[in-house]
Amino acid sequence: MLCVLSCRTGAPPPPGGTIVVALESAPAVLDPRYATDANSSLVAALLAPGLTRMDEHAEPVPALAESWVQTSPLDYAFALRPDTRFADGSPLTAADVVATYRSVLDPALRSPKREALAAIADLAAPDPRTVVVRLRTVTASFLETTNLGILPAALAREGQLPPERVLGGGPFRVQRGLSDGGVDLVPAAGVPATTPPGLRFRVIPDGTVRALELASGAVHLVQNALEPDLLPWLRGRADLAVEISPGTTFQYLGMNLRDPRLADVRVRRALAYGLDREAIVHGMLRDTAHVASGLLPPSHWAYSGEVTRYPFDRAQAGALLAESGIGADAAEALRHLSYKTSTVELRRRIAEAVQAQLGALSLLVDVRSYEWATFYADVRRGDFELYSLAWVGVGDPDVYYRIFHSRMVPPEGSNRAAYANPRMDALLEAARATLDPGTRVRLYAEVQRVAADDLPVVPLWWADNVVVHSRRLAGFVPAPDGDLRWLASAHLEPAARAAATFDCSPRIAYCRVEHAP
Amino acid sequence: MTRLALRRTFLALPTIVAAATLVFLLVHVVPGDPVDVMLGESAASVDREALRHALALDRPLAAQYARFLAGLATGDLGRSLVSDRPVARLVAERLPATLELAFGALAVALAIALPLGVAAAARPGTWLDRGAVGFSLLGAAMPSFWLGPLLIIAFAIELRILPVSGRGGPAHLLLPACTLGLGMAAILTRMTRASLLECIGEDYVRTARAKGLSRVTVLARHALANALAPVVTILGLQFGALLAGTVITETIFAWPGVGRLTVEAIQARDYPVLQGCILAIAAGFVIASTLADIVNAALDPRTRPPSRRP
Fold first, then answer.
1. What is the pLDDT of residues B5-55, one digit of tens each?
2. Which of A9, A179, A412 lies closest to B97 in CB terms?
3. Pick from B82, B160, B164: which is nearest to A28 by CB?
4. Cα A372 vs. chain centroid, distance in angstroms?
5. Cα radius of gyration (chain A)
């Protein structure tokens, strides 16, 4: 009877070569003008690419545009590739680009990306393959925002589109939404025959079950959504490959500089020295992260490694605390710090490790875990002493302006610590108004140096990209930001052929790309 | 019977509105801002305010509540703050999954609990009885977040005869229904056994035996019919809880039911969706307990409304 049942599983099942990807939460918004969460952005990028995209060094590279020139500090001209088409086969022209940007800039349509494009004064389409953009002010990070997905002009006039109606110039289009919040994609018209016949994004909220689905063979790919503790088990399976490559997600310890104790840079440095980040990365993250020296990862074009580092040194940390008056003999109230985190199991365990490590410095850390919306509201309101969060998808280094400029305290920006240093402000203002790459590199190196000395946040680690996929899935290409464009040229090998690869040792496929020094 | 159903339905309306009001107040009092959750770090504060205004989140709580009630009266549950889709459609899309799982679990629970409870009561003190009591203890003690993955590992990974998760055909239903049903069966087994044992000791059972009826007839027609009343009541309550969506089981099996939708709505502070879910859940509870009352009235004339008494 069970066999009969199993023969009728999955109505309707995905066709033969459909690649199934498991996500932990639904890609709810696929309209590129409105997609802001990580999973929505990931899927939306497959449907509707922009004029440019960011490469692995966070530099803009051609996407729909084959090239661009900056005709003056304020003027850009983009030349579209000659063959750009929407997924239904209709031509994608400069008029569509202009209409999409205009709709984001239209306050009535309430796109969350309006702010990012606020620098645009005007744009026009002098001919079907050319888009010219005029900016209000010199904006060094402008080419970061031109990754906005392009929609047909007719659709761009409407507000937020439901997933089924999103149409872009990408290799896939939406076939239908799934009842679990997932989505089925099929190849766009005119894509190469090597494109997989379908992509299914399933929502599987439980981490253990995502791993079990991989093991069962019903899911072929999970990216950055597995508990590190499950990796040894997954690695031990002959039918799965675990691929770990450097990522750009930056995890940090946030501190509230409005608190007189944390306003003292010696205390912040003491916290940095007192945390054994290597131990947490090794013991809890199973080596799926690299201890960070700052926000920008080594692969970033503006990265500078010449900054103060804080290796684990408990004696040094204790001395700094004693110097600033909250050493082991200080009053209990002075040594008491609260640490807020989310309810995610791994985050809570990391919080307990931080608690224990700072406890060794006689600091009494009180861990409080909150459900996400509450936690995030507290962080934005400045209602915290310590917290930990991550910056995901760091592109242009101008993100530093939002995080560390003294005017960017929420609700304006993301300087939650209320950090203020006139020198930092001046550097950030100069760097965003300079177009010369060499000068920007120099200015941001200085920004990184000041940030490492002032420690408005304690850098913890850069999380690696952890991809676990079926050995039947061929064509994996690591991307530091977790981009899934490689799926357009990936394919599923038939189960029988894949069986032949069962013999190879799981350790061989487990590749680890080392960081550049 | 129709009158009973009508009366219960009429009484249920204030219950449902009260539940919705309570939830409305609670979710608005809890910290967390839907606009912040939705926009993340990307938007400017002016745009946040604009969105808040467009969604009427900047209006006084009383005004938002009045709007909610007005919508309710006209059958309009509003639109999701996140996906901008009608709430009624979102809930309606998830309801079949919840119903399927609820009925599946109920079937599993009844298929185990009734035979086991009757057998245990028929032979009290034997290994069968002790086994049934032991099973119900075990079943009630096993949490679904443990039993679920265990069943998955056994049947989907090792034996490879059932799918791991998701909703599809009957095969997809089997594991989540068993996960939920086993826990329910445990309580129902105990209830059936205890209630039946009590009835077996009654005078009318002895009379029936004295009349010379067979043991099976006495047990099934006389004792069991009377013993079922409390079982049906418990069943109604449990079924109501099943309709409320069983968040943990739905999460483990990636089952797209109302429970998951509720949790997702809470996480995103998607107030209209959350209110829609609560309304559906409250209505489910009321319907289930009404059905239980109706079945009880059919089983036991004493529980019928006064006018129906002879």
1. 777 778 778 887 888 788 788 878 777 777 777 776 666 666 777 777 777
2. A179
3. B82
4. 17
5. 24
